[in-house]
Amino acid sequence: MKPEHKPLNAYRKISLICVFLLLAAFVLLLLVGISLPIVHPVYIIRVYATPTGPATSLGTELRFGVWGVCAYSQLNPPSVLNDDGLCYGPRLGYQDVIPSVILAQIGLSQGLIDAALKGLLVVLIIHIVAAGFSLAGLFTSLFLASHSMTILSLLLSVITAILSTVVFVIDIVVAAVARVKIPEFSNDLSVGVGNAVWMVLGALVASWLGVIFLSARACFCCGVRRRDHKF
Name one Pfam family in it (predicted). Predict the structure, then answer.
């Protein structure tokens, strides 16, 4: 087997760093891509009302993931171990079809939900695609002894970083639109940014760091020297 075809045959430190960074990006993007109601603790935004009076089973909070929505009440609050909320999904493209029982519980209209969910279908697709590119870049970064594999890994990492940036911007815009639109329907409701947004930010940072390290290997800069291998 040629040296450039062996994993970790050269530039091991850079390779391991890139594998770690791209693995982190892959895991974060994948978790967000299969967020609520598949992975309940991960969600993009939450719409909640401050409860008054005794605890009831009426919904006081909605949490939105890219695959669906779940409603929670004071008697059934959201938690890491709680997957018993009234959920709708998993479904690809669930706008306009959320059961009225969920909307009635928390006092929201279908128009409000459509405003909050606009663009989530695109976000879902980009999350999964970005995770796929990250996984591919992770594999190719094991073979940095080959200059062609280095270039391929760099290209895959750049695509991952760009898609992660796009996803993060879309997630922020969705949350910002919800913050503006929802109070127009009801002053008693508030909007919070979910942990999925910050997970995407982490994937974004990890991806761009991977791009920097791979660029240093590809152009033999930032202290990276040529090795005695044929490329």
Answer: SUR7
